[in-house]
Amino acid sequence: MEKNKISEERFSINQGDQRKQGIMKERRRFLKNISALSAAFTVSQAFGSIRMQSGWLEGTHSPPAFAEQPDKDGVFIISKPEHTPEQIATAIAEIPKVEYVPSSERWLRLPRTAAALAQDGGELKIVMLGDSIINDTYRSAWYTLLQTQYPKCKINAVAIVRGSTGCWWYKEKGRIKHYVLPQHPDLLIIGGISQKNDIKSIKKVIHQVRTTQPCDILLVTNVFGTTDPYNDKQWSFDIPSKPGNYRKGLLDLSMEAKIGFFDMNAYWGRYICMSGHPIDWFHRDEVHANIRGEQVIGHLMAGYLSPASSNS
Asked: Which of 1, 145, 291, 295 is exposed most, by the fewest CB atoms within 10 A?
């Protein structure tokens, strides 16, 4: 019987002076390593015609959700960073440090990804598919953080996003062929909060991709939305065992399809509860993360694919 150790992972938040020193060190390292990326885009290029609004970092105004224009069906294909390195570094300095060490077992379900990241001169194309929460994850620029951890591998990431949309929409005829397959993903990440607990539709999307494009697939559980981790009725670290639970459904599907599974919901919720800040401090509106919240889920996403691994 296959053992499921994917969700047995370690998470902690440092406190006091040690935490502050770590934050500042990470901030300096982040600015240094993505300076080359930021040099490729001026601020106006990165944001297009979008203007910065006062109060953005404090969440008093909702920032523009997308930096690129949608097609006729409302789908955005996003391939450029939106926040500047300075804005990201400021957000990192504001939040308690995120430390997350995933289980080494995860690579068993992500062989192509592991091989590309380990190869000198390798290339990894990441495609993120979902809704505005997937967009928030992409906005964190987590892939640039990942790039600093694998300097010998060229990492490219795009997000395919449609507001309030999950695989129940993407599965329809021709949509995976039109949006996902032309991107030639090595790793397809499926997530968001708009899947409507429709595991069957997610399974259909997986099948559509696999029949044409051999790639790793990673299912990621929901974060943010209206969930308050401080409310025991809304969140628990452990995946509920009751039938019909969405997190359990994704885990079961990952076992059946032999694909990756990241219960980000567990580690995001624990982080929020241990942060010393209310959930609203990480929101820009009732549903979406602000730039601080984006960095939390971005660091978790990068952590899942980082070289570090626990033995558990």
From this structure: 1
